[in-house]
Write a structure and sequence with these properties.
alpha+beta; 5-stranded mixed beta sheet; 4-stranded antiparallel beta sheet; 5 helices; 9 strands; flat
Length: 185
């Protein structure tokens, strides 16, 4: 009788399993590197030199992490080549992959800006990136006093499809008032 008068609480509806979206789709937007003579090898872009097309690149076979892709003039690659020349392999940029939505492969690149520090300097520089539709994924700024005026050192990590595109954007950043230099790190 109690069950009829007070029915049991309805069983909770089964929640659909939480599906964590894989970053595989993101990886396909990042473009590709072809290891000469080998198919389907795990590669990663080195963070020390942040290579992007059309940089000249070489690969270094790591232990457990596949092939690390470095710019050919990277000092870290030079040291590794001296210690283990047999682990350096030839690689080249693959054809620019496209996810079908018009999004080109993007590569993270570090940019160093030196400027005379002033109010709104950071805003003015990031406004250039925004107008040029360049995604800024990281920023570090530091102001140093010396010789009367303060100098601002800013490091931005930006995502671009190629170094040519980066050059265009850096020319615009260099035109911002107070900027002394804007270059790839």
């Amino acid at each position: 009788i109690e069950q009829l008068l007070r029915p049991a609480a309805p069983a909770p509806a089964e929640e659909p399993p939480l599906i964590k979206r894989s970053r595989a789709g993101d990886a396909s937007r990042r473009g590709g590197v072809l290891v000469v003579g080998v198919d389907s090898l795990m590669t990663s872009l080195a963070r020390c030199c942040r290579p992007a097309p059309p940089d000249e690149i070489d690969g270094f076979v790591t232990r457990g992490k596949g092939v690390a892709i470095h710019r050919r003039n990277c000092s870290n690659l030079r040291h590794m080549r001296d210690r283990s020349p047999d682990r350096v392999i030839a690689v080249e940029w693959g054809t620019g992959r496209n996810d079908g939505k018009g999004d080109a492969a993007l590569y993270p690149i570090d940019v160093l800006v030196e400027a005379q520090d002033r109010p709104s300097l950071l805003r003015d520089i990031t406004e250039v990136f925004a107008k040029e539709k360049v995604n800024v994924t990281g920023a570090h700024t530091q102001s140093v006093r010396g010789g009367g005026a303060a100098t601002a050192w800013m490091t931005f990590t930006v995502e671009v499809a190629s170094t040519e595109r980066l050059s265009q954007v850096l020319k615009l950043v260099a035109q911002v008032g107070g900027v002394r230099s804007a270059r790839r790190r």
